[in-house]
Structure formats: structure tokens, C-alpha cells
Amino acid sequence: MIGPMRDEMLDSVHKSLNTGRRLDLSGVLYGMPHGPSGLDPTLPADAAPKSYYYFLAGFVREMGCRRILELGTHMGGSARALDRGFSEPFRGDELIVTIDPGRLAVPILSSHPRIRMIHGLGEREDAVQEALRLFGNKPIDLLFLDSLHEFDTALQQFALYTTLFSPKYVLLDDIALNPEMRRFWAVLCQRYGPFAMNLSEISDQIQGPDPGFGFVYLPGPATAPARASGRQDEPRP
Fold it and tell me: For 48-70, what is the mean pLDDT?
């Protein structure tokens, strides 16, 4: 079963890329650049959408995602790209919740009714509780992680939000940005095996090899690789 499921993952990646390139992302920009020491307004800002923005939008459209949680808002570029992926006509249940300790995105996202921003650290109790409230304590479709690029924080946020929000898909930016993120990604690869893919190794149209871009498919415990026994159970409903 693992082989066909991985093939489906690869197929979804290519379809998302093709779909994303057909979507209008005009005006969806990253904003103030990050330098080695953090935000650096002296660096030139991007004049076009990030390449992975097209993939994000295409992924939402292709996979039919309607409930999305993002950690790491910055200036709202990725949240707006995810929003552009929603299919029209809107059903009214589309929701993106994005969490960040900064406030740079507040005036930008205030005019986007399907995006709700939580100001705070993703691993803090108040942020978690507010996100649970906004989603009505129900599972989500997609978790996008692009927060603090440190091993402890990345692992804590991944474990916390996959446990409490039960996403089917997880996308992760910057998995090869630095040694700590490479260690974090190695842990996910050890745990999820063929269900964890570095998309930068599949297409350079998403993100370059450094910083990398990850995709983890979480079909549920019943279909996770059973390394000890080699047994595969039926997937969750």
C-alpha cells in the first residue's frame, strides 16, 4: 500500500505545481526580507510572488483544502497565497488561521475575511486555545509550518499541532535552511519514512535545495509505516 500512496503524493505535487501556475497571485508578495540576523529593511524586497506561493495555492486547490492552519505569518504573503487557492464559488466554511508573534501582517490581512490572525507564539497556551476555538475543535486539512527555524521549536510545534488539529497534510518551509532544521527534518523522515518528501528534490519550481521544502502526509496511525512488524492496517476513515 505504501508504494501506491507515495505515487499519489508525487502526482498531487505535480498537479499542484501546474494548477498553481495558472492562478492569479498578483500582489501577493513576501514583504520585508529576512537577513542573517532577522528582518532587514536594507535588503531589496521581492517584486514577484515567491515560487512556493504558487505551489501553496495550487495545493489548496488540487487537494480541496478548506481548513488551514499556518505558523509563521510574517507579512501575510503565504496566507494570501493559500487564500487564492480556495475554489470559487466559496462555500462559506473556508478558513485560514495564521499565528505569529509579530504584527506586520495585521493591516494587510484585515481585509481578507477568510484569514484570521492570532498574535502570539504558536507553542503558547493562549494561541493554541484560540486556534482550537476558531476551528470549532474539529480537524483541519492542512498545516503549514514556517516559524522559528530551530530544532526544539520546530519539533514542538509539529508535534503539538499535528496532535491537536489532526491535519491530513503538512507542508514545511526551510527544512534545510540550517543544521537545526536539517536535524528536525531527519527526525520526521525517520518517523514517517516514505510519507515525508523533500519537494526541492522533486522540482526546483517550489523551493531551492537550500532552504528546502517538506511535505508530510498523515493518513493516520493505521497507515503509518509499521517498521517493526511490517504490518499495514486499513487507513482511517
Answer: 97
List the grid coordinates of 134: 476558531
* CA-based torsion, 38, 102, 85, 149: positive or negative: positive
Band of the pLDDT at 143, cuts 50, 70, 90?
very high
- Residue owning grid cell 486547490: 61
Q: How does strand 67-71 pair with strand 142-145?
A: parallel
Distance from C-alpha of 122 to C-alpha of 64, rounded to nearest angstrom: 25
Residue 228, C-beta contacts closer than 8 angstroms, at least 6 positions apart: none
2-27+48-220 maps to CATH 3.40.50.12780: no
Strand pairing partners for 215?
A: 171, 197
pLDDT in tens, 73-114: 999 999 999 999 998 888 889 999 999 999 999 999 999 999
pTM equals: 0.90
Residue 150 backbone phi and psi in degrees, to 5: -130, 150
Residue with cell 503558547: 124
d(CA 126, CA 57) in angstroms, rounded, equals 29
CA triple 4-199-35, angle to 5 deg = 160
